[in-house]
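To assess whether ligand presence alters the predicted conformation, the chain was also submitted together with adenosine-5'-diphosphate. Input:
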Amino acid sequence: MLIKVQKFGGSSVGNPERMRRVARRIAEAADAGNQVAVVVSAMGDTTDDLIALSRELNPQPERREMDMLLSTGEQQSIALLAMTLQNMGYKAISLTGRQAGFRTDGSYSSAKILSVDCQRVRDELEAGKIAIVAGFQGVDHCGEINTLGRGGSDTSAVALAIGLEADVCEIFTDVDGVYTADPRIVKKAWKIPEISYDEMLEMAAMGALVLQPRSVELAKQYGVVLHVRSSFNHNEGTIVKEEVSMDKDMEKELIVCGVAHDMNVLKVSLFGIPNRHGMAGDIFEQLARVGVNVDMIVQSGSRDMRHDISFTCGRDERVKVETAVQNLMLTVPMEYYTIVDTLAKISIVGAGMITHPGVAAKMFRVFSENKINISMISTSEIKISCIVDEREVTKALMCLHTAFGLDAEEN
Ligand code: ADP
Ligand code: ASP
Ligand code: MG
């Protein structure tokens, strides 16, 4: 008997009809003789709606209370899904993160899973039940509820698969798999049959929402093969694993495997900072102190013994950034600062760029030909990212997709 972990995202369980469809999918797996443990997200836009509601009552709610609130979204969907299955004649039981043994590290809103004690889930499976586990949540050593960051149910599913030593980990979502770009924006994007953990991790970290980056990291660490597929049909999805088979890879001979975008970009520039040692340390220590997660950093060359530093972070960190910059101005004699929240990050990802020179040049050329201005650049071994105006996102994705030979009709 195989153990299957199946994860269903919010859009897959967004209304009663979809909930029933998901239940049928789970029932199929159970009927085929598998032990099935399910991880489910909050229904539809529940998490966003709860965030909006909280903001109406307090623009800066305590993170503890936010986690208390947001974890209720998943608690609704596990109970509803269990009821649906029971109504179809299946034995099912819903379990919160705590009941399913998810122990987290205590950091509200972005907790890491420290361990999963799967005994309860195992017992339920042994008793012939389908276990329906709340994604996105766990409890710390004091019993405090922690959530795992947006999209965290993917990570819950991978952690459960590791804990149960599951044979299969399927991530069901509202698209057929991982595409060469967001298929909702780039109509010529095609589904990637197999993708390596490293490329998937970069795609996810650069904004491809389909998997939470942490889930890919965890899957890589424990060698869990992920199958990303649609909850609306039975099409083959995308397999995420260490080694991508040569034939599938060579068919495409692609240097770049995908293009990703991230709208959650805030660019902060500090102008006229004294050009002496210790300044960068002071600035980034202050940002770390208030918990700002800094992404790209660019320091300009110096003029008149002064220079400028720009960095990016998430738009939701604006209040923290402002606090940090106000504090900094008391100690670092900078001239002025600006904060821009109308930018986005466009990235190209592909292991092929390690061995092929000129990829960055081509990306910049494509932007230039399409009159897209680049305001920041950063690179890693297998990705190049540029910050551009948010209004250019669709054009940027489409022209890069074409330029790097990713358009479906060409393959
Ligand atoms: P779920 O609710 O199932 O967790 P998400 O909304 O978190 O689903 O992720 C699925 C969405 O990710 C898709 O609807 C799609 O618009 C978006 N997406 C962005 N980039 C990609 C990509 N490269 N491949 C597939 N989907 C992508
Ligand atoms: N409901 C949470 C969110 O919207 C977790 C998830 O969907 O994975 O981010
Ligand atoms: Mg998701």
